[in-house]
Amino acid sequence: MQAEPVLVLGLIEACRAVITANTDHLCALDCAIGDGDHGSNMQRGFEAVSAQGAVLSNLPFPDAVEKIGMTLVMNVGGAAGPLYGTLLMEIGRELRARDGIDDFPIVLKKAIDAVARRGRSHAGDKTLLDVLYPVQDALAQSSTLIDVARRAELSADLTAAMKAMRGRASYLGDRSIGHVDPGASSCALLTTAICHYFGENHRI
After folding, report:
1. Cβ atoms within 10 Å, residue 118
2. Which helix (H) or strand (E) element contains residue 188?
């Protein structure tokens, strides 16, 4: 599965741009229940990915996705680096074992389960999993890209009513209720950016 250079570069730029535009917002969310650096950590990670764009765009698509995951692990601080990195590395590995992406919902489910194991967390714990699982469900139901993006955004908003069970936010107990999880928010932003990119470029 050879990557189309424009596709890889376009996806990288779409993700970098949405994180850059929302860095302060993500930091503000994290200030309420965490260390306050989620936005800057994510921005650093995607700037590092963007710097490797020329190399990544010439790799087979699964290899490019896996390498992006490795780059995020090495450049994003806190829990987000290992979690996002695991997600992308597992997607890359699963895609490499397949001939196409027709069964991408299955690929994504396996990758999300790997993230859950890595973070020892579950849906409902107020993490990015609370966006990833609904997104996977929407894709499995062949929802439109617009509906997938809306599902991601709604799912992130719903984390405000949850009590954090993992990470620094869990130390707050009930005081974490009422705040959107920053990891869920960044996940929704990235999902929406990817959906918009594919929709605008008529790639799926």
Report:
1. 15
2. helix 182-201
CA distance 37 to 9: 26
Distance of CA 93 to the CA centre of its chain: 17
Q: How confident is the model at residue 189 (pLDDT cuts 50, 70, 90)?
A: very high
| Residue 66 · residue 93 · CB < 8 Å | yes
**What are the two backbone dihedrals, phi and then psi, of residue 98, each rounded to the nearest 5 degrees?**
-125, 160
Domain ranges of the chain: 5-202
Q: What are phi and psi of 2, to 5 degrees?
A: -75, 135
CA-nearest of 141, 152, 162, 138 to 184 is 152
Nearest to 118 by CA among 92, 79, 91: 79
Q: Which two tokens stand for residue 128?
A: 């990015």
What is the spatial distance between Cα 178 and Cα 159, in angstroms, rounded to a whole number? 8
CATH code 1.10.760.10 for 5-202: no
Residues in the chain: 204
pTM: 0.94
